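Need a sequence for this fold. Nothing fancy.
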């Protein structure tokens, strides 16, 4: 179909445009993630399994191609013969026979070529599926890594809050002993401390579960450090203008699903050829050298003969009820269904890319707001610090400003991570067009 035809120069310019506006892949900021993603094919149990499916289809392609080739059989037979001939004495002998037969298909109305093309397309479908699994698993690994990063930051923030809660509880308890505060305030501080301990335990459990899932998915057994050596990720959090990174709306692209559907359409075209050839005569070239033995009428001896033959073999299935007719109709129906699916997939994919782009716009606005919120939280905390040192506000009020600052940092990190995840999905959707 015309819309599936690739234009080389268009794809090159599209790729250059994407590279010029991208904020980079997630692993560009974390060396260990780059190592994890690059080693997925060697470490991931899922990819090892999927790779063997590709090898299976390549082997099936070899099997299909062999149907068009020359086949040679060698037979060797040994016999012990006991003969009781009329009017002759009983005769016993040992004898051996050998034969070599060769067969080469000559004309099958394109059915054998069609079977080879089907096997070739299935091998390519298997490769496409493998590439899709690699791309999906790479994205999942990047996203899971960012989720682990956020969880670690949340745990650090919760531990810091817990430390502040403990100090606050001790301070309130001392003040209660001298009558400055009430027993109710002590109980409230203690309840806040216990609630934070519960939240910290939940976060640690989530981190443990997420880490187990990450290692099971990637096959990675190393220790995760989340270290960004060149501070590029910190610069991304604080100063990157994500609104300038929004890619322009792209048309004329197709998804890997459409490539797969096109392969399946080609398979059905060849299935039609195979079904159409079933009730047509087929020619094979045959040849061989073989031995046989005949008995002599007036002698106990047998004559061993060496024979050679070369000829044509014709086979013709005259009638198969409605089998081939049904196969043709089924293939034609599947082919038409797939052709309708191409148009539907094209529209769905373009909507998907447009939606991802719109999400990037929304997330860039969210990052901008989260940065403003972080500035407000920092200013509030600084003011609170001054007020607390002057004993003009309570310790709980100062603690609230500290907690709000930590939460603002988490919100900003979460906003940037969500943008990076969406950007990764956008790159995966658009760049697969020219892989």
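Here you go.
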């Amino acid at each position: 179909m015309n819309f599936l035809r690739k234009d080389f120069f268009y794809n090159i310019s599209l790729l250059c445009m994407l590279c010029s506006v991208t904020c980079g892949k997630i692993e560009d900021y974390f060396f260990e993630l780059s190592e994890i993603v690059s080693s997925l094919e060697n470490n991931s149990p899922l990819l090892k399994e999927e790779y063997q499916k590709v090898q299976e289809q390549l082997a099936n392609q070899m099997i299909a191609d062999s149907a068009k080739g020359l086949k040679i059989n060698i037979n060797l037979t040994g016999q012990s013969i006991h003969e009781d001939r009329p009017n002759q004495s009983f005769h016993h002998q040992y004898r051996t026979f050998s034969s070599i037969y060769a067969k080469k298909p000559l004309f099958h109305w394109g059915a054998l070529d069609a079977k080879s093309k089907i096997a070739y397309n299935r091998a390519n479908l298997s490769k496409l599926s493998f590439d899709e699994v690699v791309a999906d698993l790479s994205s999942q690994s990047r996203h899971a890594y960012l989720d682990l990063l956020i969880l670690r930051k949340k745990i650090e923030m919760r531990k810091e809050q817990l430390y502040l809660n403990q100090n606050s509880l001790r301070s309130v308890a001392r003040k209660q002993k001298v009558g400055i505060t009430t027993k109710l305030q002590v109980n409230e501080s203690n309840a806040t401390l216990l609630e934070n301990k519960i939240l910290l335990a939940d976060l640690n459990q989530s981190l443990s579960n997420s880490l187990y899932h990450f290692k099971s998915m990637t096959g990675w057994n190393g220790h995760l450090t989340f270290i960004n050596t060149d501070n590029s990720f910190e610069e991304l959090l604080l100063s990157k203008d994500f609104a300038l990174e929004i890619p322009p709306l792209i048309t004329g692209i197709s998804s890997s699903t459409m490539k797969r559907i096109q392969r399946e359409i080609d398979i059905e075209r060849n299935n039609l050829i195979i079904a159409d050839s079933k009730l047509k005569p087929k020619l094979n070239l045959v040849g061989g050298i073989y031995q046989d033995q005949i008995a002599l009428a007036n002698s106990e001896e047998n004559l061993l003969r060496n024979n050679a033959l070369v000829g044509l073999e014709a086979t013709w299935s005259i009638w198969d009820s409605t089998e081939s007719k049904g196969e043709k109709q089924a293939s034609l129906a599947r082919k038409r269904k797939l052709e309708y699916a191409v148009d539907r997939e094209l529209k769905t994919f373009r909507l998907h890319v447009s939606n991802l782009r719109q999400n990037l716009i929304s997330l860039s606005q969210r990052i901008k707001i989260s940065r403003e919120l972080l500035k407000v939280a920092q200013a509030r905390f600084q003011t609170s610090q001054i007020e607390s040192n002057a004993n003009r506000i309570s310790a709980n009020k100062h603690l609230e400003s500290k907690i709000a600052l930590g939460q603002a940092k988490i919100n900003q990190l979460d906003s940037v991570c969500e943008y990076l995840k969406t950007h990764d999905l956008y790159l995966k959707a658009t760049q697969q067009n020219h892989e």
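For context: The longest helix spans residues 111-177.
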